[in-house]
Amino acid sequence: MNLTDLDLQVTEDLLRATFVEEDQIPEAYRLEVEIHQQEYLSNGEMKQWSGAVHTVYSPVAVKTAEGYQRKVIGTYPVCTETEAMEALEAAVAAYSNGRGQWPTMSVQDRIHCVEQFTHKMIDQKELVVKLIMWEIGKSYADSVKEFDRTVEYIYATIDALKDIDRDSSRFVIEQGIVAQIRRSPLGVVLCMGPFNYPLNETFTTLIPALIMGNTLLFKPPKHGTLLHYPLLKAFGECFPKGVVNTIYGRGHAIVPALMQSGKVNVLTLIGSSKVADELKKLHPKVNRLRAILGLDAKNAAIVTENADVKLAVSETVLGALSFNGQRCTALKIVFVHRSKVTAFLEGLSQAVGNLKFGMPWENGVALTPLPEPHKPAYLKELIDDAAAHGARVVNEGGGTAFESLVYPAILYPVNEHMKVYREEQFGPVIPVVPFDDLEEPIGYLIESTHGQQVSIFSNDAAETAALIDPLVNQVSRVNINCQCQRGPDTFPFTGRKDSAEGTLSVVDALRSFSIRSLVATKLNENNKHLINQIVNDGSSNFLSTKYIF
């Protein structure tokens, strides 16, 4: 199926028509006022900022007499290394080598603080949801889901910590030694989240790190910064001084000094493996640095000759284009057995054509504007490169762009000479690779520098089993007849190779941000009396048999 100039023009006109004038934006979804943030949270105070600011432009452009212009939704501080280092010192002081109020606080009291924060967070739901939508172009419905899922994750984390603490509330006796084994914090955590799930994925590291007794430096993502502003006051009110500190500014200008100080104990980043590698190398004592990282992914789908093509198509559309394909768990390359290619491409083209594109506030919208200003040009570069090496866009209007909106492109046949074969596109481009032998997609995954997930589409048990066994040693999750995904949040979420370090699930995250510590003594009458007195007096938060209900 080849495109005509008419196909392209019709699609571009349709894309253009989705951008409306200011007064056509439904009132229910408008921001009442622009959000001009002139303060940040550091050392328990909302500190005023009068320096440089960054103007936040929404991916949503509005039609004006001068043309289409991205809507300004506010500004936030561009702080310097000085403010970042002050925040670091506040976090270091609050931790106080493990002697601070927060790391020595009882688990029950830390849980209470997190619950208080969550109640205040829920009070800000309407504004935070609107800011998610306006800052990153996520549909309003999905923005609501992201907020609600984050709250659910916090409560699930609280429940998981209660379970861990209950199991730890008893003493263990082995070989004449009595001990109590609990989890204790690691120190100062530098937390940096991603733009695509700026609230949810940020909080899946921030909340476990916090509730385990660590102190935080929190740098919001470049796209998705303002949405955290309504929550800063709650952080300051619900946690002791210096426990949560926000840092703003250009990452390259403020983060290196933090790492070079050697005072950051844990680096948690969801983003680029290249950035993670550079930051880790800056730390003077790498062996003391723990890293919990969610990084690049090039998740593949394998559609075999025994696949249900209709099912493979429906799951591929969801997997490749949910939030415009801007997810680390998105399907980013699809291997299809040559016998199924024609039916698969026809079905996929039709399914993509049925997706609704438009502004984030529209009901049922599936494709929305992209938040990264450079992304449309990068996607065009990938499409042009693929065309130069023998691929074509097989769906009508595929790859057409107007302003920040890019219509999905299905590329076929993709081969190893194309950039899109290896590079993570992180956008609405679906590369399809034909294959004759299952060793071809297996070989791709073996050679790949990424190792997060894979999806297998097959109804043949022997064939599926033959794929499972080699692939579980290449990726962290093998999905059968369904798209790649993170959830449920109780399942381990990690990756091999350059895709991750550490494991994030509700329970795993609590373990990642803590270490097992124990108090032990020889079991004799004197020591039994001593331990019983400490427990009965309630004089230690660590050595305790208190049971959290």
CATH topology of the largest domain: Aldehyde Dehydrogenase, Chain A, domain 1
Low-confidence stretches are: none
Largest sheet: 7 strands, mixed
Global outline: globular
Task: Describe the 3D structure.
This protein is an alpha/beta fold and 549 residues long. The protein folds into 2 domains: 31-294, 3-Layer(aba) Sandwich (Aldehyde Dehydrogenase, Chain A, domain 1); 299-492, Aldehyde Dehydrogenase, Chain A, domain 2 (3-Layer(aba) Sandwich). Helix content is 40%, strand content 22%. The protein has 18 helices and 25 strands. A 7-stranded mixed β-sheet has the order 15-18-19-14-13-21-22, sandwiched between helices. The chain has a 6-stranded mixed β-sheet with strand order 10-9-8-11-12-24, sandwiched between helices. Strands 1-5-4 form a 3-stranded mixed β-sheet. β4 (53-64) and β5 form a beta hairpin. α5 (125-136) packs across α6 and α7 packs across α17. The radius of gyration is 25 Å and the shape is globular. The chain starts with a helix and ends in a 12-residue tail after the last helix.
Which helices and strands occur, and which strands form pairs?
Layout: H1 5-18, E1 35-36, E2 39-42, E3 45-48, E4 53-64, E5 67-77, H2 81-95, H3 101-104, H4 107-123, H5 125-136, H6 140-168, E6 172-174, E7 177-185, E8 188-192, H7 200-211, E9 215-219, H8 229-238, E10 244-246, H9 251-260, E11 266-270, H10 273-282, E12 290-294, E13 299-303, H11 309-321, E14 331-337, H12 341-353, H13 375-388, E15 392-393, E16 401-402, E17 405-406, E18 409-412, H14 419-422, E19 429-435, H15 439-447, E20 450-451, E21 453-457, H16 461-471, E22 477-480, E23 496-497, E24 500-501, H17 506-512, E25 514-522, H18 525-537
Parallel strand pairs: 1-5, 8-9, 8-11, 9-10, 11-12, 13-14, 13-21, 14-19, 18-19, 21-22
Antiparallel strand pairs: 2-3, 4-5, 6-7, 7-25, 12-24, 15-18, 16-17, 20-23
Helix pairs in contact: 2-9, 4-6, 4-8, 5-6, 6-7, 7-17, 11-12
